[in-house]
Amino acid sequence: MLKIFVVSGGDGASGNQLVRTALAQFPNVDVPVVIVPQVTDPAQLEQVAAEAAADGGILVHTLVDTTMRERLINLAYEKKLAHFDLMGPLLNHLQRQLKQAPLGQPGLYRKLREHDLKRIEAIEFAVDHDDGQRIHDLHRAEIVLTGVSRVGKTPMSVYLSTLGWKVANVPLVKGIEPPPILFEVDHRRVVGLMIEPGQLVIYRQRRQQRLGAGLVSGYTEPQGLVEELEFARQVFRKGGFAVFDVTDKPVEESAQEIIGIITRRLA
Based on the number of CB atoms within 10 Å of its own CB, is 66 exposed (0-12), middle (13-18) or buried (19 or more)? Predict the structure, then answer.
């Protein structure tokens, strides 16, 4: 049976995707695709070439290291293997056009994009774990924010996520026990957000104006807010959480201070 070996100095994702794209044009056949990643030693080339020869397979490679690529091509000729160099011709052409030698470093594209990939993953995490959602995997969060309604948990979570942090936030409601898992996760990663009652009243009044009816009675009543904040303080003390006051502070400044708190607590 035909078998395709995808050889790469990185994770083999590019070669695998191209091979799968080609195979999709032949829907009635099932061709095994073997990914051979992280190939950095000539001995690995010898082994994969021997396996391909034994199976009558095809070699497809995306090696950027010139020495490794040429060695595999020579092995393919020696063993009379069909082989397809997906990287060499393009690199050679670019070298001539740009008058510059390629670096020949496997996985460099992914390394260059690693920060962006981490940031995207963190943003998705923050959205999925907003307002107590997916509470069962709270332990996966790098930062957990908790506090009463309108204290700024969601905007803070989103901003921190754009910096690459996986953030979850858990709402606190007076009279309702917080989820037990909030006290089971690493307390050093949990930050309780606090705010002056006067500013909280303003934020809640604005929300009430936007939403109109539907909010619980006492949502903007000053004395009730004071009691809610005291309830939050009790939760923070119980959990041994760091406390951060967001009163009159922009999100950007608060985020940097929260990162500092977490970093110091984990040191």
Answer: middle
Residue type, 93: H
Residue whose structure tokens are 């700024």: 152
Chain segment 105-156, per-residue pLDDT in tens: 776 666 666 777 888 999 999 999 999 999 999 999 999 999 999 999 999 9
Neighbours of 185 (CB within 10 A): 17
The rounded radius of gyration (Å) of the Cα atoms in the chain is: 28
- For the chain, the residue count is 267
Domains along the chain? Answer: 4-106 (3.40.50), 114-266 (3.40.50.300)
Query: How far is the C-alpha of 138 from the C-alpha of 105, rounded, in Å?
Result: 37
Encoded amino acid at 39, one letter: V
Q: Is 56 exposed, middle or buried (0-12, 13-18, 19+ CB in 10 A)?
A: exposed
What region, left, alpha or beta, does residue 2 occupy, with left being phi > 0 and alpha being psi -120 to 50 degrees? Answer: beta
Which 3 state secondary structure label does DSSP give 144? strand
Count of CB atoms within 10 A of residue 201's CB?
19
Q: What would the pLDDT profile of 14-27 be if each residue is shown by its tens digit?
A: 899 999 999 999 98
If we measure between CA atoms, which residue out of 30, 33, 22, 59 comes closest to residue 44?
Answer: 59
Residue 203 class from Cβ within 10 Å (0-12 exposed, 13-18 middle, 19+ buried)? middle
Instruction: Answer yes or no: are the C-beta atoms of 1 and 14 closer than 8 Å.
Output: no
Nearest in space to 240 (alpha carbons), one of 182, 196, 194: 182
Query: Do 15 and 84 contact (CB within 8 A), yes or no?
Result: no
Nearest to 102 by CA among 9, 13, 6: 9
Q: What span, in angstroms and rounded, lies between the C-alpha atoms of 262 and 192?
A: 12
